[in-house]
Automatic annotation (TrEMBL):
GO terms for biological process: amino acid transport. This is Amino acid transporter transmembrane domain-containing protein. It is found in: Membrane. Residues 41-312 form the Amino acid transporter transmembrane domain. The chain crosses the membrane at residues 41-62, 69-89, 132-150, 170-187, 199-217, 237-255, 275-298. It is a multi-pass membrane protein. One of its GO terms (cellular component) is organelle membrane. The keyword Thylakoid does not apply. It comes from Citrus sinensis (Sweet orange). InterPro entries: AA_transpt_TM. Residues 1-25 are annotated as: Disordered.
Length: 325
């Protein structure tokens, strides 16, 4: 009886063992991928996808953040948070290999158990919903307009076509959700978004170029002055207001939950470290230039959403065209 039990235990499969042998399962996966025409993600596609994850709605709040902190401390904080992000991602990837985890939640589960995994997933859902709300607000402000401090800032469709039922905020956001967001979230692979990610990064760079160009032109003609280099703390309320900048800085580089999906789709997974470094360098450059030239251009008039500053006369030729762009 003892011998039979030991023999049975010897040849009994673990409940976690795959149904197919490892080599056969891998060959089957490779065959399916080949039949579907799926190749590994490229370096450039991964950089664009990760950069799009990083450069989010927070970019429009960075000029106002730097205004509160002062130019020098604000830019230093942007660089510091970028460095901390790269270091934390490197730490996550090292522990992923040590725990043989292929997902972010797997790493957390290895360290903190099932409760940690559940808490992480809840936090990711809350973060994504919050970012989606911010995106919708910005899209509504740009397309339909907004009221800030009792002043109406016109949107693009309102300026072009006037006020109609189809230029209202609700209608435009509904159309954006149905014809933009829903198709984009239907893809199964992150790499399928590489072209829209490249477009997104390109538009961010266009915004930076326009902001920098207008600021340089107005600096040359002497119509704007240098912003404050250090924060102005005149009373206790202004000191506590500095802490309102932390959420913007902390969320500016959030991308950790997308690292594993991007790495798993790479042709060469060993490139992930270079991809992370390239993406963070690119995004830090975009953040720094946007913050510097946005604050230089609008100064104390910089709004929490810097896009709202572009609805008036910029004081240069073709101002209306640049505002629409």
């Amino acid at each position: 009886m003892t011998i039979q039990s030991s023999v049975e235990r010897k040849y009994r499969k673990s409940p976690r063992a795959p149904l197919l042998p490892q080599a056969q399962s891998q060959n089957h996966d490779n065959l399916e991928a080949h039949e579907a025409g799926i190749d590994g993600a490229s370096f450039s596609g991964a950089v664009f996808n990760l950069s799009t994850t990083i450069v989010g709605a927070g970019i429009m709040a960075l000029p106002a953040t730097v205004k509160e902190l002062g130019l020098i401390p604000g830019l230093i904080m942007i660089v510091l948070v970028g460095w901390l992000t790269e270091s934390s991602i490197d730490m996550i990837m090292r522990f992923s290999r040590a725990s043989k985890s292929a997902t972010y939640s797997g790493v957390v589960a290895d360290a903190f158990g099932g409760a940690g995994r559940a808490l992480l997933q809840v936090c990711i859902v809350v973060n994504n919903l919050g970012m989606l709300v911010v995106y919708m607000i910005i899209i509504g402000d740009v397309l339909s307009g907004a009221w800030l401090n009792g002043v109406h800032h016109s949107g693009v469709t309102e300026e072009w076509f006037g006020q109609h039922w189809w230029t209202t905020r609700f209608t435009l956001l509904l159309l954006t959700t149905l014809f933009v967001f829903l198709p984009l979230i239907s893809f199964r692979r992150v790499d399928s978004l590489r072209y829209t990610s490249a477009l997104s990064v390109g538009l961010a760079i266009v915004f930076v170029v326009i902001t920098a160009g207008v600021a340089i032109v107005k600096t040359i003609d002497g119509s704007i002055s240098m912003p404050c280099l250090l924060p102005e703390i005149s009373k206790q309320a202004s000191f506590w207001k500095l802490f309102t900048t932390f959420p913007v800085l902390v969320t500016a580089y959030i991308c950790h939950h997308n690292i594993h999906p991007i790495e798993n789709e790479l042709k060469d997974p060993t490139q992930i470290k270079s991809i992370v470094r390239t993406s963070i360098t690119l995004c830090s450059t975009v953040y720094i230039t946007t913050s510097f030239f946005g604050l230089l251009l609008f100064g104390d008039r910089t709004l929490d959403d810097v896009l709202a500053n572009f609805d008036g006369d910029l004081g240069i030729p073709y101002s209306s065209l640049l505002d629409d762009v």
